Amino acid sequence: MKTGKTFADLAIGMSVAIENTVSEQDVIDFARVSGDHNPLHMDEDYARTTQFKGRIAHGALSASYISAILGNDLPGPGAVFMELNLKFVRPVRIGDTVTSTAEVIEMIERGYRVRLAVKGEVDGKVAMKGEALVMVPSGLAE
User: Fold this and answer.
1) Residue 137, Cβ neighbours under 10 Å: how many?
2) pLDDT band at residue 137, thresholds of 50, 70 and 90?
3) Which of 17, 68, 73, 141 is the most exposed place for a label (fewest CB within 10 A)?
4) How far apart are the first and last CA of the chain?
5) Closest Cα to residue 104, out of 18, 16, 14?
6) pLDDT given for residue 142 in this prediction
7) Mapping DSSP to helix (H, G, I), strand (E, B) and coil, where does residue 63 land?
8) Omega cis (within 30) before 91
9) Is the predicted pLDDT of residue 141 greater than 90, yes or no?
10) Where are the domains of the chain?
């Protein structure tokens, strides 16, 4: 079983980036799991009549890529997601490859919490950006 980083393992500036290409099936599956069947995501004819001129992926689907980094890599297994603040800057479309990044920007010893700058980019342009706060195991002998 993979183990995550502890507070003692982490340092400001550590970062991880992952890539995900949004597929039609991802959008369908996310709608099914979340219950969000907004026609902006599901109906091309409807979506063409909007300011986006076509379907876009759920913002929360893009945000879930940040969750994947935090739960799998930085800090990884054992981390507890406490807070996420995201601003969505531009839409993500089916077929886009999202490069999601999390970087440690603050270490809070009390409670063993870590604040990370997070973002998602498509073709080098920011689609979402913000911060996450996670609690991690101390790494100290109990």
Assistant:
1) 19
2) confident
3) 141
4) 21
5) 14
6) 44
7) helix
8) no
9) no
10) 7-135
